[in-house]
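Quick look at the format.
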Amino acid sequence: WSDMSKVIHKVNERKIKDYKEDIDTLLVFAGLFSAVFTMFLIESYQGLQQDPMEVMVALMQQVAIQAYSYSLNARFLNSTASPFS
């Protein structure tokens, strides 16, 4: 049994060593991936722009508010809405 125990111990030690190396490799890969992904996010974040449709909707809402606020008094056409909200 002693010889069998030594063989099993060696096999287990090799497996543990392999697992440690695999984990080290995965941790290095995860760190590199995280660094590259963060750099990509930083660079792409700087290039983000406001959606043109959102700007158009906001402008159309302002036009609608002003158009709704007009009142006709004798010879004058007055708006009670502020020019920009």
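Next, a different chain entirely:
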Amino acid sequence: MSAISWVAVKDFTVDAVEKQLEEYIQTWEMQRCWLYTLDFLSSTEEEHRTFYHYRARFGVPTAGEPLPGTASVRFDVCVSRVKPASVPVEVSFVVESSRLVHTPAGTRFREKWLEDVVESKTLLRREAGL
């Protein structure tokens, strides 16, 4: 589970949290063959908070398939406007094709989740004749 001390609301920047997300992903127990990219997507303003959305796309490139099937993990970072500025931002994530919302402190990431997404997409492509 996460040992990351997330940045305080007052210190939030898109880049600072992106670096922390990179650190968090590095704590996941996965084989080294998984490569990923992490991108900031957008922000969503609400009355008392702003959500910042990031996406990590994972794949396992090989010589035979340099552009492999991918699996995405979406991260949402909540920056409160009403809580004290010293509290940390809130981070949650959802694995592609799932609706279950995880938190770094409450969930141990499973490599199998990525494998299942890639396998599902591969089977769908085969069925569709792509």
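The two ends are 38 Å apart (CA to CA).

See the schema section for token definitions.
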